[in-house]
Fold this protein.
Amino acid sequence: MAEMIRLGQIQVESVGLKTEMKTKLRGGQKILVPYEFEFHEDENAAPELNYPKVPTWVRDSILYEDDDFFIINKPAGVESQPGGWKHRGGSILTEYACLQGEHRDAVRLVHRLDKDCTGAMVLARNIGAARYFSRLLKLRSRIKKTYWSIVHGNPAKAEGRIQSYLEEKPAITEYRTLGVARKTAAWLEMIPVTGRKRQLRSHCAQVLGCPIIGDHKFSDANDEQSLSGILGTHALCRLHLHAWEIEFPSMTGKMISVRAPVPKTMLSTLNAFGMFKYAEDPMEADFKKMREKLRKQALRNITRAKLK
């Protein structure tokens, strides 16, 4: 029961309240459980549990798996871990726990991505793997995470090392510019040395002065308004931050390196700004596939912006 509550599989109907072991119940409240119980005629027989079916998108998003880890391509709009009643639509942890069947409670979340961030994310399949990954995180140099972002404006320096304090703790990010669209936007590769909450988003907006497109927390309405004619409203609603690659040694010593396909929204934005020519990575095939499909649409958007 405690494991089910920790995973967010049992929730109490209370808006904004995260269900915990100490949560007190009030009369009339509903308790949600993710199982259907089948009772036999024999009253003494234990009920059978029918585990929820694994959604197709969950299986399709797996990039790598072994006996210890899943690495997935996290979609936008899904929380990493279970929240309160208002987030009862599911989370990465609860959805991927379904893959373990009766061993679902063994799945552990070993790091997090923001709800609107996409890309490579690691889940441990057992407690031993979770502890191992936690030790790697403390060593910092053993795990390399590479993110791509598209920001509004151009950094003063094409590459560098950002050092600041977030929540009174050191926050360090290395970055380099992969492409620019005059002074309108830039395509950045970012490697977080530390892992503070919203570190990359804060560093882009508050240190570089270039907020990530679609980041409504760290940008203002004027930033978005100036880009709406080129990108359209739909693109501006999506956070342009993607966990592109993760590398770390497995428990057997083998090096694991996984890259997550770039979401279509980001590909469309890169095309609209004409930054395809700066692609210098093995995922060039993804860009070529999208290029012809999006070229006419991008040209129409730019033409409309000029007419306005």
User: Anything to note?
Assistant: The CA atoms of residues 129 and 219 lie 38 Å apart.
